[in-house]
Amino acid sequence: MKSSASQTCALVVNTGSKQGITMPPGNLSYNVSKAALKAYTEGLEHELSTERRDESTKVKIRAALLIPGWTNTSIALKDARAKAQSSGETFDASK
């Protein structure tokens, strides 16, 4: 993206998670890593905003945190399978 003939704009997008904001119990390492990414992105945007105010800066960079909606992955399926196997139950993926 060009903002003028002498300036270039850029965007850094980090993919976070709602769990990094709401911090529900049960998945501590995931929650903490996503909360850290949120804090990093916010701090980076603050640092970059200082540089954007400098008129001599040729590249204007922004940082944003993308929080996508629920994405169905096999993570929950694998967890359910492991729990069933550890308790000696038969796993049925269709349920």
Describe the secondary-structure layout.
Elements: E1 2-4, E2 7-15, H1 19-22, H2 28-52, E3 59-66, H3 75-86
Parallel strand pairs: 2-3
Antiparallel strand pairs: 1-2
Explain what this protein looks like in three dimensions.
The chain has 95 residues and is of the alpha+beta class. It is built from 3 helices and 3 strands. A 3-stranded mixed β-sheet has the order 1-2-3. The longest helix has 25 residues, at 28-52. The chain is elongated. The model has no long low-confidence stretch (mean pLDDT 88).
Features:
3 helices; 3-stranded mixed β-sheet; 3 strands; 43% helix; alpha+beta; 95 residues
What does this entry show, briefly?
The chain has 95 residues and is an alpha+beta fold. Helices cover 43% and strands 21% of the residues.
**SS elements, strand count:** 3
Could you list the spans in which at least 5 consecutive residues all have pLDDT below 50? none
Strand content: 15-25%
In N-to-C order, the SSE pattern is EEHHEH
Order of strands across the widest beta sheet?
1-2-3
Biggest sheet layout: 3 strands, mixed
Radius of gyration: 21 Å
Number of helices: 3
Computed structural class: alpha+beta
> Fraction of residues in helices?
40-55%
Overall 3D form: elongated
Please state the average pLDDT score.
88
Distance between the termini: 48 Å
- Could you state the oligomeric state of the chains shown? single chain
